[in-house]
Specification:
The complex is a heterodimer of chains A (424) and B (92).
Chain A: E1 14-20, E2 23-29, E3 37-42, E4 47-54, E5 61-68, E6 72-78, E7 105-111, E8 120-125, E9 128-132, E10 140-141, H1 143-146, E11 162-168, E12 176-181, E13 184-188, E14 196-197, E15 218-223, E16 231-235, E17 239-242, E18 250-251, E19 260-266, E20 274-279, E21 294-297, E22 305-307, E23 325-327, E24 335-338, E25 344-347, E26 355-358, E27 364-371, E28 374-375, E29 383-384, H2 391-409
Antiparallel strand pairs in A: 1-2, 1-27, 2-3, 4-5, 5-6, 7-8, 8-9, 9-10, 11-12, 12-13, 13-14, 15-16, 16-17, 17-18, 19-20, 20-21, 21-22, 23-24, 24-25, 25-26, 28-29
Chain B: E1 2-5, E2 19-22, H1 29-39, H2 41-47, E3 58-62, E4 65-66, E5 82-87
Parallel strand pairs in B: 1-5
Antiparallel strand pairs in B: 1-2, 3-4, 3-5
Classes of the chains: A mainly beta (424), B alpha+beta (92).
Amino acid sequence: MVATRNVNVKDGDVLVMVGTMKGAFLLRANGARKRWDVGGPYFPGHSVYAMAFDGRGKKPKLWASTNSMHWGGVLRSSTDFGRTWTNPESANVKFPTETGASLNQIWKIRPGRREEPGTLYCGVEPAALFESQDDGETWTLNRGLYDHPHRALWQPGGGGLCLHTILPDATNPQRMFVAISTGGVYRTDDGGHTWNPRNHGVRADFLPGKHPEWGQCVHKIVAHPSRPERLFLQNHWGLYRSDNGGDSWQDIANGVPSDFGFAMAMHPHDAETVYIVPIESDQFRCTPEGKLRVYRTRNAGRSWEPLTRGLPQKEALECVLRDAMSVDHQNPAGVYFGTRSGVVYGSPDGGASWSKLIGGLPPVVTVEAAVVGEVRSSGGRRKTNSAKASPRRASVRAKAKSARSSKRATPRHAKVGRRPAKKK
Amino acid sequence: MITFQIPGYLRTFTDGRGRVQVAEPVTTVREALERLWVAHPGVRDRVVDEQGQVRQHVNVFVGDESIRFTGGLETPVADGAEIWIIPAVSGG
């Protein structure tokens, strides 16, 4: 067995948590993000579908969902950056006996809003939402969603019937979104008591009626805290934006080689900027043309540009799964993603250039980035404990620099708002 | 008395022991396992799910017989029996 290495982490460091099919890894760098130390493997042999960084407490806490094919899954946490992890005697996320259901996988761990320091959420398979109000000690099934009449009719996608995305509204504590494959987007406006589908305009190519009220295979939704009514959605075929809290969605697949994909990440400082990795099709889940390209929009989906510098552009039949892309909150923002072939790439400049941070890992399932010492949660605006230059001024500088660089680097074809050819 | 044979992974929850004995009289595998949960509660959720069913990729044998073919958790156990908990041949 390979020995587990640990990383030494201090305030201001950037941490990239990587969950794979056979264990977890921690990548650490200082703010420059040039040299990365690697910790792990943690939980060797266990799949780690979800990881989270919770900086709201006195000590930063890492979370990991570990699942053994033989022995089931639990949520585990670490307050010493992976040197030790909890291993609860009793499984901490369990369906109540009367449901007749049993946990198959924990797909998402989401710290609650900054104003709710003990609140955590997790999304699981079979599709359900669990909530903790005591910092993960005990978990309760959200009955409003579980008892929804649609639930019995949701169908599993290729990865299982999973609730994989949890998106609390940044400003409205009563509102939250979840995404289910295959059920679609559901929204609560009353703190989780009731839920309603929010999929108008999102297509379901695998059903006779292409625009059902619910039943879509949504792969990921993201939103920026400064514009919580605006959401972006990567669908199982389809890229969408909603400007009204999910009430309706419009197609924004303008100039991408395919509108099929899994991963999607929101820029931390710019509510117009989103990252995706287009995938050829649902049958051939590889990057189109053998080119590993991240696509970025900086105008909320009116156009997309390929980001390729440092990424393989030949014979790269890769796939980036739905939770395997993340951003840090530095200026300029770091962007990270991991592939099914076990490579993690990172960009310290908002996607302008990329480098391989580590390869040779088991298939990457989840990537979560965080800046240590920074309080970041689902809803609250960021607050850093480090004495740095004003983030706002830095953001303006970074944006101006990025705009100048983009002007030079953006290929002409990226500006053509051409819709992709529909794949069968 | 019956004896449980505990696989390596679960010994974290049995104080490192590979053999755990249950002295109380039991008549079925279910009763034996419930005794095991009392002594070593961390084993429970690794062997059975929240519905009390033995996990899909865990095999329980009484002697040489898998309980999947002998009545499941209601499989009788006699005094002196050995119960083996073994991860199935599966992976990926």
